[in-house]
Amino acid sequence: MLDVVLRNRFLVLLAALVLIFLVAPFVEILRLGPFLTRLLLTGVFIGLLLSAVFALDPSRRSRRVALCLLAPALIFEATTIWSTSKYLVLTEYFFSALFLAYMIVMILKVIFEQKYVTANMIYAALCAYFLLGMFWSAIYSTIWVLDESAFRHPPATEPGVTQFLVGTTISAVSLYYSFVTMTTLGYGDVVPLSSAARSLSSLQAVVGQLYLAVLVARLVGLHIAHARRD
How far apart are alpha carbons 216 and 188 in whole angstroms? Predict the structure, then answer.
């Protein structure tokens, strides 16, 4: 059983990432209060971070480095359940973004080291894409903490629903804006106003398109090479 889980570790991470998208918006809709909302979102996010470390090859140094980056991220993530101090939250965002960036690099390294197109490789590519969106989500939340006028939101029906900050790295609005930007969907209900927000939004849109273009080219190239060898 354990061997099956290890072979499909990227599928486990992908399931955790999808769970984030299912939990984050509904926790806010339930109106459990600020403390319970932060508690549930923090628990889900910590589970995601642990799943990300599990996805790395245990025989390599990468998992040890990931654990070293994960420790401060978990500490500050848990601390923000009781305190939403601006500097504490910014520190949490820094370590979480650093950990997510490292995971993206490591997963992409695994993808480009593969010589065959496998299901595990596709799962890894999807995980890297989701993690990329979450990385930018943390960046936008950081900008919002530093400057609450950096983004224009639609009129809120409930206090705090349209905030980028809910006390944890994961916010339904920041995730929504990140992936709408990365896929160049651009509904326009959340609009960047500051120079930093506009520049980073443009950069994310370019990175998102390049990621898909390069990844598809890689998968197609491997498939053609494998077909010719057969």
Answer: 28
Q: Are 151 and 193 in contact (CB under 8 A)?
A: yes
E strand segments, 120-173? 151-152
Helix axes 9-29, 119-146, angle to 10 degrees: 40
Q: How far is CA 229 from CA 112, 207, 221, 225, in A?
A: 19, 33, 12, 6
Q: Total structural domains in the chain?
A: 1
Q: Which domain holds residue 134?
A: 2-229
> b/e per residue, 42-79, with b = 16+ CB within 10 A?
bebbbebbebbbbbbeeeeebbeebeebbebbbebbeb
Mean pLDDT of the region 6-18? 81
Q: Rounded to whole angstroms, how far apart are CA atoms 158 and 164?
A: 14
Give residue-wise pLDDT tens across range 36-67: 766 777 777 777 778 888 777 766 778 788 88
- Whether residue 38 contacts residue 166, with contact meaning beta carbons closer than 8 Å, is answered with yes
Q: How far is CA 95 from the centre of its chain?
A: 13
DSSP 155: P
Question: Longest C-alpha distance within the chain, in Å?
Answer: 60
| pTM of the entire predicted model | 0.84
Pairing, β 191-192 against β 151-152? antiparallel
